[in-house]
Every structure is written in C-alpha cells, then in structure tokens.
Design brief:
Layout (H helix, E strand, L loop, with lengths): L2 H14 L8 E4 L1 H12 L7 E4 L7 H15 L16 H14 L3 H8 L24 E2 L8 E2 L2
Parallel strand pairs: 1-2
Antiparallel strand pairs: 3-4
Helix pairs in contact: 1-2, 3-4
C-alpha cells in the first residue's frame, strides 16, 4: 500500500461524506507526505497545503533504511504474514524497526553525546553494563575481581 493508495481511499471516503474540498491539508513527516500527495493528486480539492519535514521524493538512503525496517518486522516470529487477529503482535520487530528509524533523524552531534567515547554521567535511567559494572571516572571499567580497571569499550 502506498501513500497514493491511502490518499485515494481518503478521497473516496470524503466523497461519501460529501466533502468536496479541504480548507487545508497539512502534516509533518509521514503526514506531510500525505498532504503533498493530496495536493499533487487532487489539486482541485485542496485550497491550502502545508508540508512539513518531508521531501518531495525518497532518497536511496531512505529507501534502504525502510527496507531494513520492513525486514525487521517481517522476520519477527509473530509477523505471521500480517495476520495479527487472535494472536500476538510482532512487537520485537516493530521495536527494532523503530530503533532503525531513530537513526535516520538524529544528528551526528547527538550520536556523539549518546554513544561516543566520553563517559556519561550516570542517571536513574542508565542501566548497568552486562556484568553490573558502571564506568569509572576517566572512561575506565572495573575489571573482574583481581584485575585492574580497563578502558571502556
């Protein structure tokens, strides 16, 4: 299903509801893409259009990330070809797809702050490392009992 498909379905619903034109269509991100599709496909039905945070066409990089997201969902054992009635949802695949999406709209500076080599101040949301250790000042991790502290990886 494409944005054009959903916009065509919305236009048919609007016809059934007796809505012949929209005062404005607007949206950000995916909503912006839908607003743009309305303006392109039904220009006589759109009086005003505000497109926010979306380009007119997907880049090759965006398409590649979308493929990874789709694969994450489809490979979830609960995907079941999209048939979720009466059963569990593909929550793990959806969570992974969302994490992939977050990569696409974060800045390099934010990644450096969150995942860079500098030690972060602990807070109540931080989780201990796999063996329960937290980085020491200077970016060092306590070693196993009997060993010295080593650099944080």
């Amino acid at each position: 299903m494409t944005l054009r498909d959903s916009t065509a379905a919305e236009a048919r619903l609007a016809d059934q509801l007796g809505i012949h034109s929209w005062f404005a269509v607007l949206g950000g991100s995916m909503g912006g893409a839908r607003a743009l599709e309305w303006a392109v496909s039904y220009p006589d039905r759109v009086q005003r259009c505000a497109v926010i945070a979306v380009g007119a066409a997907s880049t090759a990089e965006q398409i590649a990330f979308a493929q990874a997201q789709t694969l994450a969902i489809r490979q979830d054992s609960n995907f079941r070809d999209g048939d979720y009635y009466g059963g569990p949802l593909p929550e793990e695949g959806l969570a992974l797809a969302r994490r992939i999406a977050h990569i696409t709209y974060r800045s390099a500076e934010e990644f450096d702050g969150r995942f860079g080599r500098a030690v972060q101040a602990p807070n109540r949301r931080s989780r201990p490392l796999s063996w329960g250790a937290r980085p020491l000042p200077g970016g060092k991790l306590p070693g196993p009992p009997g060993q010295e502290a080593g650099p944080a990886l």
